[in-house]
Design a protein that fits this description.
mainly beta, 313 residues, Nuclear Transport Factor 2, Chain: A, 10-stranded antiparallel beta barrel
Length: 313
């Protein structure tokens, strides 16, 4: 038995630590593995979910009506590769596995779709060219001319990107676009604004004495550090801490953030708070203080992970 445990223990330890860069509650889109080829970071600005507008040519070669879609990028294979998935309003779904192969110094992209399942996945290959990522797949034109179907990610920023699919001849002098997509990053581009909005909504929930709403601003494993009190852990116990005495009324609460800084899937903000509450007996108590909050991005929103505050006399 001792021998078996000895053999199993390294496997268990390896299993817990080896996949640190995969998708998790703390990192819903995974993380870039520092041991991955440096080119894996080419897609870093696109990691996350974008709301996009897709437009394709019709059979008569005129452009069709724009269609809404989402496009999500995430790290896979313990942060060594990238996967993306699209979902259109019409229910069509597609995706790609993207891996940079250092030996050939190229990206290789394998594409799949629920509308055209295949035993062999179509593939593109290419590289970053300037500020764009350009990928190619050999494809003849309808008249038999040799050429490529070229995919280009361009105008890439942390706020979004544009994409174009086009047929080009072997010299790339003749270009015929057939598909365009314009994408804007969802929520993450408004992260600071969302944190400030959540701070305002927290105060609104406080003034309504809504303990359930207050608790939902926290992560399941959150911890709060009230003034002159022990640490309270977990959403359920935090909810109890934010319970209000019967008969209290005329609640006022205001949070004034002084700085908000976002670091990947975490953020912190610090600032001041103030408020007042009237007891059942009619006694008005006023308070003010300072706070530090650590936020964590999960379930497409910023949640409070750590919350510490103390009063100012």
């Amino acid at each position: 038995m001792k021998i078996i445990l000895f053999l199993l223990l390294p496997c268990a330890v390896w299993g817990q630590g080896a996949m640190n860069y995969d998708v998790s509650n703390s990192y819903p889109f995974g993380r870039l593995n520092p041991d991955a080829p440096k080119e894996t970071a080419d897609f870093a600005p696109m990691i996350g979910t974008c709301d996009c507008i897709s437009t394709t040519r019709k059979a008569d070669q005129t452009w069709g009506e724009p269609q809404k879609m989402t496009w999500t990028f995430k790290y896979i294979m313990n942060g060594m590769g990238v996967q993306d998935e699209t979902l259109k309003d019409d229910g069509s779904h597609s995706g790609s596995i993207r891996q940079f192969v250092a030996d050939s110094s190229r990206w290789y992209v394998h594409w799949y779709s629920n509308t055209s399942p295949s035993t062999t996945l179509p593939s593109w290959e290419g590289n970053k060219r300037g500020d764009s990522i350009v990928l190619y797949r050999e494809q003849k034109a309808p008249n038999g001319m040799d050429g490529f179907y070229r995919l280009t990610f361009k105008d890439i920023t942390n706020e979004g990107y544009n994409w174009v699919g086009e047929w080009v001849d072997t010299t790339e002098k003749f270009v015929f676009p057939t598909w365009t997509i314009e994408c804007k990053k969802r929520m993450r581009s408004r992260s600071k604004a969302r944190i400030l909005e959540n701070a305002v909504n927290f105060s609104k929930a406080y003034m309504k004495k809504d303990s359930d709403a207050i608790a939902n601003f926290y992560t399941e494993d959150a911890k709060i550090f009230p003034n002159n009190a022990p640490i309270i852990s977990g959403r359920e116990d935090i909810k109890k801490r934010w319970s209000f005495l019967e008969g209290t009324r005329d609640l006022y609460h205001k949070i004034t953030p002084l700085e908000v800084l976002i670091i990947e899937n975490y953020a912190y903000d610090y600032g001041l708070y103030e408020g007042s509450i009237t007891s059942k007996e009619g006694k008005v108590s006023q308070f003010k203080g300072k706070y530090v909050i650590v936020w964590r991005w999960e379930d497409e929103d910023w949640k409070i992970y750590l919350d510490i505050w103390n009063r100012i006399k």
